[in-house]
Amino acid sequence: MAEGAAASACPSAQRAAAHAVSLRDVTITFRLADNAAFTAVDSASLSVEDGEFVAIVGPTGCGKSTLLNVAAGLFPPTSGTASIFGAPLTALNRQAGYLFQADALFPWKTALDNVAIGLETAGAAPAAAKEKAQAWLTRVGLGHFGGRYPHMLSGGQRKRVGLAQVLIRDPKILLMDEPFGPLDAQTRQIMGNLLLDLWSADKKAVLFVTHDLEEAIALSDRVVIMSAGPAARIIGDWKVPLARPRDISEVRLDKAFHDLHREIWQTLKDEVLKGYAQTGGG
Amino acid sequence: MNRIVLISLQLAVALVTLLAWHLLTTIPMSDGKPLVPPFFFSTPIDVINRIIKWFAEGTIWRHLWITLTEATLAFVIGSVAGILVGFWFARQPLIAAVFDPYVKMVNALPRIVLAPIFTLWFGLGIWSKVALGVTLVFFIVFFNVYQGVKEVSPTVLANARMLGMNERQLMRHVYWPSALSWMFSSLHTSVGFAVVGAVVGEYLGSAAGLGYLILQAEGTFDIAGVFAGMFVLAAFVIVIDGLVTVVEKRLLVWRPVAADTRT
User: Fold this and answer.
1) Between chain A and chain B, how many beta carbons pairs sit less than 8 Å apart?
2) Which of B161, B174, B253 sits opposite A92 (nearest CB)?
3) Is B159 in contact with A96 (Cβ distance < 8 A)?
4) Structural domain contains residue A130
5) 3-state DSSP call for residue A29?
6) Domain membership flag for residue A151
7) Are A75 and A69 spatial neighbours (Cβ–Cβ below 8 Å)?
8) Domain count of chain A?
9) Across the interface, do B159 and A100 touch by the CB < 8 Å criterion?
10) What is the overall mean pLDDT for chain A?
11) CATH H superfamily, domain B43-251
C-alpha cells in the first residue's frame, strides 16, 4: 500500500494557514448491483481548521460516514478533492486517527496490546510501546484493565480503549464516526467529557459525525448540518457560542445552548422527516 | 446440576448398559440359551478380560503408537497444507476462482475411494494411512482458514490500516489470528478426522494399528476382540479430544465463552 504522505510537500508557512481538513465539492457515487448509480453525497464542501472541533449532524443514512471515510482516505471521492493541511489526499490519511462506530478493537489482543499496536506498527520497541500504552490506559481510566480482552470489557470501556488506541499515535486530525452511538445515555455523557478533556490537552482538529444534535452542540465549536440522502448536501453551518472548558451535562442547561438548538433544529427537522419518509419510518 | 450427581448419573448409565449386556448374553432362557447370542455380541467380562490381556502382555502399545503416529502426521501435514493453501487462495481471489470447481470436486469425492490408490502409491506402511488422513484434514483446515481470512471484520481491517499497518503487519496482527481462530474452532473435527483416516486406512489394508487389530479379530469371528478394539479406540479418541480441549482453552483465551457447540 502506498504511503499517504499528504502534507509532507507543503512548506510550513503555508501549512499554518491551510485547513487541517478541506473537502471541496466532494461528490460520492456508488454503483449499485443493478448497475444504477447512487449518489450518496452531492458536492459537499467543508473545512476544519487546525485545533477546531467540528460536528457533522444529519439524518440517518445521509452519507455522513461516507464523507468521513473520504477525509480518512479510506474511500476516494467520485469527484472533488480532499486535502489535508493543504496537500491533496491521494492515499490513506496518515495524519488522522479514526474512531469507528462499530467495534474495531482486535479481539485477539488484550486492551494493553490493542493500545500498544499503533506504536508498534510505527516501529516502536514493544516494551516502550507497552509502557506508553499503560500510561494511556490510565489516562482513559482503565489502568487496571490492561490484561483484559475486548469481550471482557463493557461497551463504554471498549470505547475508552479505542480512544487510547487512536490517541497514542498522536494524530493531528481525529475522525470520529458516531463513536458513542451504541452507548447508553449516561455513558455517552461520561465519554463526551473524557473526550473533551483529552482534546483540550493538545487541541487536535476533530471531525465528529453524529445524528444527535445535542451531543454535537455540547461537544463542538461548529455544527455542520447535512440534508437527507440520497445526494445529501451540506445545508447549514453554525458556530457554537459556548465557552470552554465545558461540562456536557451542565452545558445543556445553558440558554445559549437552547437557542442554538432551536435554531438548528428548525433546519434539521424537515430533513429528518424527509429521511424517515425515505427509509420507511426508520 | 450438582457435579457429583451428574457424574454418578453418567456412571449409572454405563453400569446399567454393561449389566444389561451381561445379563442378556449370559442368563439362559427357557431353551437353555441366552436371549442374545454371545457369539455375535460377546460378553462384557470377555471384552474386559481381552483388554486387560492386551495391556498386560503389552501388545496393544505398538498398535496404539502406530495409529497415534499416523493420526498425528496426518493432522500436522494436513493442517500445514490447509493453512498455506487457505491463505494463498484467500489473498489471491483469481487463483481461488480458477481452482474453485476442482476444490469442490475433490472435496465432494468420498475420500475412502482414494485408499486403494494410496495403498498402491505408498504401500502398506503408515504413509498410505497418513495420506488418507491428510485428504480429510486438509479440506477442513483449508475451508476454515480461507473463511477466517475472508471474514475479517471490515471495521477491524479499516482500523488496522488507519493504525498504520503495512501488508506484512496486517498478515501478522489481523489475518493470521483470525484464520487461526477459525482453524482452532474446527480442531476437534480435524483431529477426529485424522484418527478416522488412520483407522479406516488400517482397516483397508495394513500390518499394525488399532484398525488392523479390529480387522484381525473380525476375520477370525473373535467378537470379544472386535469390541475390545472398539473400546480401546474410543478411549484413545476421548484422551486426544481432551488434549485438544486443553490446547484450545489456552490458545483461545481471547474468545468470549460461547456455548460449547460440540455435541
Assistant:
1) 68
2) B161
3) no
4) yes
5) strand
6) yes
7) yes
8) 1
9) yes
10) 87
11) MetI-like (1.10.3720.10)
- Tell me what pLDDT residue B29 has: 83
Give residue B51's pLDDT: 94
**Quick one: pLDDT band at residue B124, thresholds 50, 70, 90?**
confident
Segments making up each domain of chain B, as ranges = 1-41, 43-251
CB B159 within 8 A of CB B174: no
Contact B256 A151 (CB under 8 A): yes
Give the pLDDT confidence score for residue A276 in this predicted structure: 76
pLDDT tens digits, B7-21: 999 999 999 999 999
Distance CA A28, CA A48 (A): 19
CA B214 vs CA B49, B202, B220: distances in Å: 16, 9, 10
Closest partner residue to A121 (CB to CB) among B169, B177, B253 is: B169
Asked if residue A60 is part of any domain, the answer here is no
Q: Contacts of residue A105 in chain B, CB cutoff 8 Å?
A: 156, 159
Contacts of A96 in chain B (CB under 8 A): 162
Q: What is the Cβ-side half-sphere exposure of residue A104, based on CA atoms within 13 angstroms? A: 31
pTM above 0.90, yes or no: no
Domain that holds residue A159: 105-170
CA distances from B224 to B26, B47, B215 (A): 14, 5, 12
State the Cα–Cα distance between residues A211 and A177, nearest whole angstrom. Answer: 10
In a domain, A253, yes or no: no
